[in-house]
């Protein structure tokens, strides 16, 4: 088989087309209504570039980039509307319960609120259709395999534009079996289930990792190990790596050569092994990327064409984006492509640079994890704005163990299906390196400064890219010494700022905070410390940002979850909560009682209570009182819906409070008319969570009555709604309330007592009261 070799001058010709196709696919799936217009523009650019190629050579690059991008956007323009069938649109619009028949399309993942089932709809209320959805439900005792067709009563909820599924389905009952998987899929299901049973007989954290490393099943990995793997930058080892496909394909071809097989037989054998492996480990992002590259390599091999890693990766990315433009939003696929590109392009120059101080073998050993970390970090920063300080070291220590655990684990899976005792013995061999990896992760997590805060958002990503670019410019000898000196000075100054800011942020972050408005984008997520208890009011939609806030403020469990209402920017991350929740408080409305999220909470064993005006509870050192909605005269649930059904609460310190004894009013998304009834209640408080992200639909008299010293506005940067509005800010100013906002100031932590009330912000340029 042709081998992928390092090149002194990598072939970059398909790099820009791949990047262009990715960007175009992302834009088109985010704005599908503009996909056709974007395609026309790109095709026009392609034609113009073709006409001008003879004048300037770089027009050829423009032509190819535009053509690749047009293919991706063209796919969106053709498929976007048909992607959401009419029967699904009707179910989403009505909000009624429907009978959903679906085929399990991926491995179920257990969460705090039941299982997440990637699925393909096959029928709704008996009407045949097809579309990707995400089902939240409890599973039967016998775990269904991929390809199993099931049926359940559920309610459909819309997803964000650009999501890889068109709807979410929340079921309050266990789906029933409708049809068994295809026999070919059943083979993979049986092998995985048998291997999970073997792994469950092994001890410790290594047993949790073996199935993921070998067959891509992460179901045994618990939250503690998952967190340790993330902090240590080893999370890619909780699941099967795309590099395993390269090992298998190269191994089959090499074995065939050793036995004297002809080229067609070698290619057929490698293709068969590739298909079987993908069937076994399931088509995850990294697996899809590696499989596409393997198919291209095998095709080139069949024509005796030379193989070069960078063009193969570029072509694979373009082909996958054209086949499924929505994969441009898949973080797993993005991380896999970035890591592969970094290794193909950067390993050799980084190793050469390190050889100035280290032997070549040691330099190469360090260069591989270093380059992969540098390439993936911009994407990881979008998920968690922290730098894994010991990530390279952890990967260096884990590198020898990962392939052994993977290959031996795969053998254990295959042998265990035939002779379980021998399979178990082999699984023990795979357990040893897996346990070593888990030990590394758990040790690194406990080290001081394991994860250093970095700038969040787009600025954080760009600052990391600039830093890496500057470091890259330092390496070549041809760069003038004055430039290098200037870069060193600039980097030193920048790093000093980052280190100083991170250190000051950690030192200044209050430990006695009472209320924290988490910076989770356009949505609400308010943490309240109620004595020894912790309360979360709303979750927002971005689960990763929410959990980053939890980590920053040391929250590892919730005694009470309050959901003001059920818009996605307030409750969208409920299903992704990964910390224990004891109880939930929801608005006592007809809408809430029929809401699928309610059933999901109840199925998870969480005590659910419905609150209305006059209801109260004591929790820790605070008393909590519901201000709205108001039940009907006969005690029936309120008929309010949407924003005006928001569960509005007043939290006040009790006599047992000893520090940061501050009161809070959280107004949810109440509009002006729904705020008016609160004028008849005693609502004065130190802190007000401003309603509806600071929209103009506010009641000035209410804010004057609350007379809060601090107003917290949870709002996303660059949102398209104009939040917060000047009208809302003027109301707060007129009421004597100093406003703070998450879009410009990050996390907002309120603490202190009386005249010493203060607000800590996570982003610079803030003002304390």
UniProtKB/TrEMBL annotation:
Organism this protein belongs to: Gulosibacter chungangensis
One Gene Ontology cellular component: plasma membrane
Domain Metallo-beta-lactamase: 521-578
Keywords, sorted A to Z: Cell membrane, Membrane, Transmembrane, Transmembrane helix
Residue intervals of the ComEC/Rec2-related protein domain: 213-475
Membrane-topology annotation of the record: Multi-pass membrane protein
Protein name from the UniProt record: DUF4131 domain-containing protein
Superkingdom of this protein's organism: Bacteria
Localisation: Cell membrane
UniProt cross-references to Gene3D superfamilies, sorted A to Z: Ribonuclease Z/Hydroxyacylglutathione hydrolase-like (3.60.15.10)
Coiled coil: none
Lineage of the species this protein comes from: Bacteria, Bacillati, Actinomycetota, Actinomycetes, Micrococcales
Pfam families xrefs: Competence, Lactamase_B
TM ranges: 12-28, 34-53, 234-255, 267-300, 307-327, 333-351, 363-383, 389-415, 422-442, 454-474, 486-507
